[in-house]
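User: We ran a pulldown and think these components assemble together. Before we commit to crystallization trials, I'd like a predicted model of the whole complex to look at. Sequences follow.
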Amino acid sequence: MQPFTTHTGNVAPLDRANVDTDQIIPKQFLKRIERTGFGQFLFFDWRFLPDGSPDPAFELNQPIRQGASILLARRNFGCGSSREHAPWALDDYGFRSVIAPTFADIFFNNCFQNGMLPVKLDEADVDELFRRAAAAEAAGHAYRLTVDLQACEVRDDGGFTRSFAVDPFRRHCLLEGLDNIGLSLKHVDKITAWENAHGLSPLQGGAT
Amino acid sequence: MPAPRTLLDKIWDDHLVCSPDGEQPLIYIDRHLVHEVTSAQAFEGLRVAGRRVRRPEATFATPDHNIPTTDRRLPIADPISKQQIDTLRANCREFGVRLFDLGDADQGIVHVIGPELGITQPGMTIVCGDSHTATHGALGALAFGIGTSEVEHVLATQTLRQSKPKSFEVRVEGELHPGVTAKDLVLYLIGRLTTEGGTGYVIEYTGPCIRRLGMEERMTVCNMSIEAGARAGMIAPDQITFDYLRGRDLVPKDFDQAVTRWATLPSDAGARYDRSETFSGGDVVPQVTWGTNPAQVVGVDATVPDPASMADSSDRSSASRALEYMGLQAGTPIAAIPIDRVFIGSCTNSRIEDLRAAASVVRGHSVASRVRAMVVPGSGRVKRQAEAEGLDRVFTAAGFEWREAGCSMCLGMNPDTLAPGERCASTSNRNFEGRQGKGGRTHLVSPAMAAAAAVKGHFTDIRQWRYL
Ligand code: SF4
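Assistant: Here's a predicted model for the assembly, 676 residues in total across the polymer chains.
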């Protein structure tokens, strides 16, 4: 897994609440059996007009937001289906971090499995980031943020600094880019002991 | 005396494998359900790392999301869909996983066949790469959806990294009025809890109104927990649960002994939940969603709400956007909204009780001329049972299409989709933009309400239905 330590990049504000994974990656693109190549389909139904050209009205299609790598969103981001294709698509498009007041649980988990950092900030702080992004864009340049997992803080160069909370184990795995399965298999004796205590054994089964 | 524990506490404690310092706990997974859309990358991961499936006999697979619901003897027309299903077949063969394949009499939506075959049992931990895994909680299991990386983790280790979720008691007093169903109840609850009210929690539904629900109605309620943000919903097992399970294919051989064990699962008197809320079943009327998330819902006797009347600015902008997408005007009576399509199916409402309820409404009536309506049974078994009862003929005589089992137009990944602008009364669980087809407009309702809407060509209050 790609590690996440500190990332500085342009912000793409997406001022919508309850962005569900059906919007992030519509179902017609879930037929692929690979993990890669989903970025071209990110927000497909919002991003493209029926004729296939980019919809100029869609937030991410603004020229100033091209190349953005931090997505700023509203509450309950990533709700709905468990499809991990959602973080795959965000990652493949170039996003390394998503900032929102709240996230849906499964999406939140899925990000950590893919070296992407979801950051929860207070609603008021997210409001402030939207304001700062709007001001920067009005002045003709993209808004830049640094998401620092080592220091657990989000900051810009205009005086905004907020710390965020993150589960210490997940933080560790992300900083190091650890293979979760490999890590769990270090406890295989405990797994076997549990199975034995419950009258199960691998490859043999039994009624629970 | 040990402290009183909730159902969640008991299952959690029993499945905790280890809780190493500085790590998230590992919990043991009893049953792993697999389908074609979220598993290919997980099996590929195993292959690349040279790992195998730790307990193939605890793993069950079926194709459901991306399959046609037309004649099963025909080849799958879409080559990419075909490849995905062939990949599931090859993976199951290679890793020794039992597959209920297309054409198998027991194939069906993964959350329908789990309980139906007795794969799902009280007290178990159950996962699947699908957010509606919460359905299985209706039998007193801890069941939730996971992502593909976690699918791979469970395949390889039979465990999951998981911090203990908080518990949320949703207590429902009283009883439902005639014509009001479990679907109406859960939509009503989501409307009150909001789409993220349950985030971080496992909901346990309790109270007399819940205890009165039959097994399949309980599945409908737990199924939609995720729409309130809760990864899992559960209902303590009782005699209704045990009666439902007795005689099913994969239940323990010594069933009575299992029942004795399962009977110890319900939350102890005095057990503490992290949060509790109480509702009254008698307050619920038949529900219809008007927006693009399941919490945007009102009673069938209400009107489309006015965004301007909403206190919260984010609710206001969501509602305005939703009304625009849905092509609706604030103030329109729900019963005046005409519909083009009806879909009766999905893991929320495609079981035999659902089809019986819909058929009793339809019997002797015809589908309105403007409406195209279809019934998609949840599994091969449900389909056969319905046919044995003659329900298929009730539906087809009224002008419904009668299909093969699958997810179908719940997510429209197969050819069953809405055209842009088409409006559908659907018994599924998500009314997101484009969920049933790009530009399609979904209204979530109960099976009886969907059936009545098919006949009338618009929504109508099922409590006033003239049954023939
Ligand atoms: S019926 Fe719908 S919600 Fe249920 S598993 Fe299939 S696609 Fe998911």
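Chain A is about 30% helix and 15% strand. That may be worth checking against your pulldown data before setting up trials.

User: Thanks, that helps.
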